[in-house]
Design brief:
Elements (H helix, E strand, L loop, with lengths): L8 E5 L3 H14 L3 E6 L7 H15 L7 E6 L6 H15 L2 E6 L2 E3 L1 H13 L6 E5 L15 E4 L7 E4 H4 L9 H6 L2 H5 L3 H15 L7 H10 L3 E5 L4 E9 L2 E4 L19 H11 L2 H12 L1 H11 L1
Parallel strand pairs: 1-2, 1-4, 2-3, 6-9
Antiparallel strand pairs: 4-8, 5-10, 6-8, 7-9, 10-11
Helix pairs in contact: 1-2
Length: 308
């Protein structure tokens, strides 16, 4: 890709220089014309954060050799995952009407950028489409058409794109949760009770400030609007784990090339795809990981494994 990339891109950073360096190499390949960079500040009294946050920012601010408009939002204090990311995306869409969002642990395939750019334009005025994801459906799901993407109700924010029109409806504090339940929206979207309860449990945890996050609120807003998420037939974004093997990052997913040749005829949910996604999300192993994360054991075990 030799031409300058026109669609605005937001990079969300914190304290992961190794992952950021890999992401930055991908960004340099496409040469974005408008690049927005937001970084949360180091946690108090955390010496590793002080060093890693500074190193991460240095990686991004060096090595630009193309015509690029840079916009920075560097925090001096640590706001935490929820507020830092939510406020950064809001800052981004105050200036850009549409764009691509990448966290520092997301490594996109080159085709991800073209995929997002083309579909941002195609569905710009289609209010049924809420966002575009770089993540495909689970590996056990097989598309029955030759379309290059499909629509689901379940969104994924591991490398994604959207419009200001969608983000302006974002409900960080879940102020509309009571109405959402009264209107039985979750029942309309997901026929299985265990799938309904999966989401409602998370929403109540966030409402009661037991979870500090931002992406479940994105799902809530999308559900509330009955919005559709575009998902590619091939995975276009790797999610990088913090676990390392022999000093190198262990990649959790793989990506494949994808150029759009065939669009779906109808803008409508693929029910089988949503069912496959929810089956994976409600699997016992996935639920166990969430419980361990919540009580902090997951990160302790990862650090132990990292140092073996």
């Amino acid at each position: 890709m030799n031409k300058v990339f026109e669609t605005p891109i937001l990079l969300l950073l914190f304290n992961r220089p190794e992952e950021t360096a890999l992401l930055w190499e991908k960004i340099k390949e496409i040469k974005p014309k408008n690049l927005y960079i937001a970084a949360d500040g180091p946690r108090p009294q955390n010496q590793d954060d002080q060093k890693n946050c500074a190193t991460t920012r240095k990686i991004i601010t060096e090595g630009i050799n193309w015509d690029c408009k840079l916009h920075f939002l560097f925090r001096d204090e640590n706001l935490g995952c929820g507020v830092a990311i939510q406020s950064a995306i809001s800052w981004f869409f105050e200036q850009a009407p549409e764009g691509i969002i990448l966290e520092d642990d997301c490594l996109p395939h080159e085709d991800f950028f073209d995929f997002c750019e083309k579909l941002l334009e195609r569905y710009r005025n289609e209010k049924k489409v809420f966002m575009i994801s770089g993540s495909c459906t689970p590996g056990n799901f097989q598309m029955t058409t030759s379309d290059d993407y499909l629509f689901t109700y379940v969104p994924s924010a591991w490398g994604w794109a959207t419009w200001r029109r969608s983000w302006n409806k974002y409900d960080f504090g879940l102020a509309e949760l009571d109405n959402f339940e009264k209107e039985k929206i979750i029942v309309d979207l997901f026929p299985q009770k265990k799938h309904q309860q999966y989401w409602l449990n998370f929403f109540h945890e966030i409402k009661n400030k037991k979870i500090n996050n931002w992406d479940y609120q994105l799902a809530f807003t999308s559900f509330k609007e009955r919005g559709l998420c575009i998902r590619p037939k091939n995975n276009l974004v790797q999610n990088l784990g913090t676990t390392t093997i022999n000093g190198k990052i262990k990649s959790i997913q793989t990506t494949s090339p994808l150029r759009i040749n065939k669009h779906p005829i109808e803008v409508a949910e693929n029910k089988q795809a949503d069912e496959a996604i929810m089956k994976e999300l409600t699997a016992p192993l996935h639920q166990l990981k969430f419980i361990l994360k919540k009580i902090g054991i997951f990160y302790i075990l990862k650090n132990i494994h990292k140092n073996l």
